Amino acid sequence: MFKTDNIYSLTDFQRNARTHLDRLKQLGLPEILTVNGQAEIVVQDAAAYQPRVDKLEAIEGIRKGLEAMKQVGMSRRFLANLSVNTRLISETLSNL
Questions:
Q1: What secondary structure does DSSP assign to the chain, as a single string?
Q2: Which family is annotated (predicted)?
């Protein structure tokens, strides 16, 4: 489930915060912090976190789009026609 080399106790994090922060910035990998031996929180450098959020949002948008297409029963023929029409519109606009 978790990479064992990135798990630390919250106490260790508090005592050695600078070391942890330097490692977080350098590696860009998240660390799992434990309390009483149980995973409680994940910490990660903000700059390394944002691309993960962006990817998750893109994946969610794709998932929602696919689900919407299923709900309205879009057929492959309709999607193919949509693609052709979009191309024709783009070509027409570029010739203006």
A1: ---GGGEEEHHHHHHTHHHHHHHHHHH---EEEEETTEEEEEE--HHHHHHHHHHHHHHHHHHHHHHHHHHTT--HHHHHHHHHHHHHHHHHHHT-
A2: Belongs to the phD/YefM antitoxin family.
